[in-house]
Amino acid sequence: MITVEGLQKNFGGFYAVDGASLSIDEGSITGLIGPNGAGKTTLFNVIAGVLQPSDGKVTMKGEDITGLPPHELFHKGLLRTFQIAHEFESMSCRENLMMVPGAQSGETLWNTWFGRKRIANEERALRAKADEVLEFLTVEHLANHKAGQISGGQKKLLELGRTMMVDAKIVFLDEVGAGVNRTLLNTIGDAILRLNRERNYTFVVIEHDMDFIGRICDPVICMAEGKVLAEGTLDEIKANEQVIEAYLGTGLKNKTKEEVQA
């Protein structure tokens, strides 16, 4: 679904992404792991149009999308969430979801004067859709709560809910588990799995929690120093000596397997 070829992003003389190449299969939940500074978030930002690449190519279903801005990728079904949730704090959770779809009739001055019935009908449909999303995520009790007053984990669920308000095809999730308690993280994982199985969402997930990655992701891609280091199942990644060295240092090559796993 997504193919990345020789992607580079440099800041002055520093290459945050240095010739990365990878493929994301449609219908998969792909985990992206690596030590801090490996280039994971920068890779996301380049693919999602937040940053322009220095070199390389990104295609989506064979179409060249390299460097397209986020709003164009949004309309193609490519969405991206952030490590720190972005919500309209003073609006309710329901209203946050209702804001997502573009080209709403109420956005034009003409329709506010002469298209009130159309606006009302759209708002009823959006409200029903938002309530359906909140129920799917098991947070319908938060519908009228101000988004700025809910917990960090609930904000992550709300961000996931935003992707359900439009025709999302592939969603890039950046550290969905950061600052989230285990119960809510399990709820988020359940929602991702259901969206994948029931609605054929494709996901790419940056996450440091290996239990979470192991539960929902296959395959797993490991990055280090801006490059793709290894790809495979989580067990294969864990057994890869290059991956172990990237995470824990080259001295581990002289340690026993039991010492590494301790």
From TrEMBL:
InterPro entries xrefs? AAA+_ATPase, ABC_AA/LPS_Transport, ABC_transporter-like_ATP-bd, ABC_transporter-like_CS, BCA_ABC_TP_C, P-loop_NTPase
Alphabetically ordered keywords of this record: ATP-binding, Nucleotide-binding, Transport
Q: Which domain of life is it from?
A: Bacteria
Question: Domain ABC transporter spans what residues?
Answer: 2-250
- One Gene Ontology cellular component: plasma membrane
UniProt-listed SUPFAM superfamilies: P-loop containing nucleoside triphosphate hydrolases
As one GO molecular function, the record gives: ATP hydrolysis activity
Q: What is this protein called?
A: ABC transporter ATP-binding protein
Q: Which organism is it from?
A: Halocynthiibacter styelae
Q: What is the lineage of its organism?
A: Bacteria, Pseudomonadati, Pseudomonadota, Alphaproteobacteria, Rhodobacterales
